[in-house]
Structures are given as structure tokens and as C-alpha cells.
Amino acid sequence: MAAELLIIGGGLAGCEAALRAAGAGVSVRLVDMKPARFSPAHASPLLGELVCSNSLRSADPASAVGLLKAEMAVLGSHFIEAARASAVPAGKALAVDRERFAARLDNAVSSHALISREAGRVEELPASGVSIVATGPLTDGPLAENIAKLAGGGSLHFYDAIAPIVMTDSVDMSRAFWQDRYAEPGVGDYLNCPLSREEFSAFYQALTTGEQVPLHDFESPRFFEGCLPIEVMAARGEKTLLFGPMKPVGLEDPRSGRRPFAVVQLRKEDLGGRLMNLVGFQTKLTHAAQLQAFRLIPALAGAEFARLGSIHRNSFLDAPRALTPQLALRAAPQVFIAGQLSGVEGYVESAASGLLCGLNAARLLSGEPLLTPPPTTALGGLITHLMNQEAKSFQPSNINFGLLPPLAQRLPKKERGRALARRAFGDLLAWMAAQGLKPAEAPPLLA
Question: What pLDDT, on the 0 to 100 scale, is given for residue 7?
């Protein structure tokens, strides 16, 4: 192939995309600011730098993120290879030595015969040719404006306010009820979790004293009034929540026949209703503090959280309207978006999106049909989330089993993950065979 693929950004997604495309015989030009310039979050001159934790989370293929890692390994992921080669003891998790990990990815990119690396800042996408943008959650300036223009006005967001999501079947329905405000009891799209005065007081105390995640230097301590952290609202006074996201007006608890003292409302996050969003509960509390507080809500005492809340500086596209299922811009199909800019969250998810972009960019250059992974796989589940037209306001997400279609038969929770993984591996291998893709390794055996 004579055509060259331009990749902007040398983080996890950019490196994975470059190595995947080059492995398919494509000449790649990878442009990254390092080592000439650094973003406020980066310090190492190496590509593939991990800026937060060194953990890639669970290595168990019966967990959602473990399944995603196993699928990536089957697809020949260089990210997974580097992680395994630089692993440090971390129990059931896959954690890495940051320097060894980044050095391994950096060397793989820099030494590849088909990849040329440049240090520089790209301000505008080229008018022609195929490119992958993997510039991460701090994308800004003229390039961000250029992407937003291509994607459609208002499609690029710069502030990420995420409310927690719970698995619907983990909510204690004996302590919750369906009702829209001022509608008949039992009717509506909202699942209401009532609290008594005493229960609200305990919840309020945990919320206002819980440990918070410190802001990065590049994040503003000022929040938009429309997406205030729940603990910031609570700090303004106990009644703030009772007139805000926990207001009980227009609702009637069928257990008592009266209006509750306070209510937490859950809203469907997906068409199947397997995931529920805690409305208005974006937060800067640490994950441990969130779990301590939210499990004081009686209906959520034993809830399984598919995602916990956060608020941080983040550039991401309104993926359902801006992207195709192959991660190309709808308005500019020669431009692929990888990493957190596409609307995924997390190290593994970012690298996975880079893998898919590298695969599809190479196929576009060779005139082959683009690929979308099966929805029953973890990689396909990420695409399902990015294409979710049902979400009222799109927000980034990590991989979780709620993004995959349910199993044909209902199984206990301890068996469900393994069954989902077995189905995913079978569908992945069949899909790869149909597309002429050879597995780099066999998937793990699951009893």
C-alpha cells in the first residue's frame, strides 16, 4: 500500500493503532508532542505513559474488563503484550511497572520499520488521506475546534459529569417503586428509592464527610451550576438536596401511601433497562466514599455498581451522533477517533478502541470492508455504548457486563460472568474467521 496513515497522539490508543495498522502492512506517520512539549498531565518523554494508576484492573476473563483484555490478546494486542511483559504482583489484577511498560510500547513503535515518529503539535487535520485522532481527554485548541467542526457543532464536550450506574437486577425492589412525578403510583419511567428522615440524615452525613478526589492542576475548582457534584450541593445545606435531585414532591411510596422524606431517582440507561442511572448524582467523592454513602440508600444497600460517578476535565465526542460503529466520524469517514476522545473510559478501553481504529484504518486504505465486532463481545459492548441513542445525554463509560446482551437463560451472578465470557469467545472466534483474521492466541479456557 502506497498510502500513508496519519496517527495523531502517542498514548495507549495511538500506539496500539499504529502497531496494529503497521502490522497489516500500512506505512504509519505517528505525530506526538513529546518530547518537545508535554500536556499538563504528562511527565515522561516515552509514548504510552500511564498518567494515573498503574493498574489495568481485573485479569479474570470472567470479569468485564478481564474479558476485554483477553479478547484484545486474541486479536494480537501490543498493549496487552507490553502489560504482561512488565507486570508486577497485584493479586487478581493486572498491574504494571510504569516505566518498563511505557518503554516497551515506545520501543515497539520507534523500532517498527513501517512507523515514522515525529515530535510536534497538529493544529488541523489534513484535508485528504486517512487519519486516526488519539489525542486523549485533554484535547483542546485549534485541533479540538477542527474536530468539533467536522463532527458537527456542539459535538465535542470539555467537561465530564458522570453519575453512578447500577445494575437494575441488583436493586432491592421491595424498597423501591416505579412512578413519574404526579403520575399514578406504579406508572412511569423512574425507579424511586425512598429514604426516611433518619435514613436521609445518615446518607447526608456520609456524603458531606466523604473523602474527595483532589483536582488536578489543570482542572478548574469551579463547576457548572448545571452539573454540580452532589456533595457540593449538599454542602450548601441539607435542604438543598431536598429541593434538588432528592426532592420527593409528586411521589407516593406505596408501602406507606405517603410522600417519602427524600427520594433518589433512577433512570434507564439502556433500551433493555438493565442499567439505571442515579439522576443528578455526579460526584468527586472517591470510589470508597461513594460506595459507603450510596449503600446507605436502602434500595441500593446491596446494589452492584456498573460505574461510579466522577467529574473531571475531559474532551470527548457525542459518540452516538458523531461516530460510526467503526469509530469513524460520520461527517468525515476518513477520520477515525480512538481513545477517550471517542467516549470510552479507562486504559484498557482506550487501547481497545485504538486496536479497532488501527484495524479499520488499514482496511479502509486497502479497500476492504470495515469491521464492527459482535455485540456479545466486550469490544462490541463498548461500541454498543458509543452508539447508544437511548441515553438522554451521552457520557463516557468503562466496559461492564451491562453493555452486553443478556444471556438466554438467567443464571446466578457468580456463574453469569463465565457464561458471558464463553459466549463472547465463541462469537469472537467465529467473527474473526469470517473476516479472515487469525487469532494471535487461543482464548482462556473457562469451565
Answer: 98
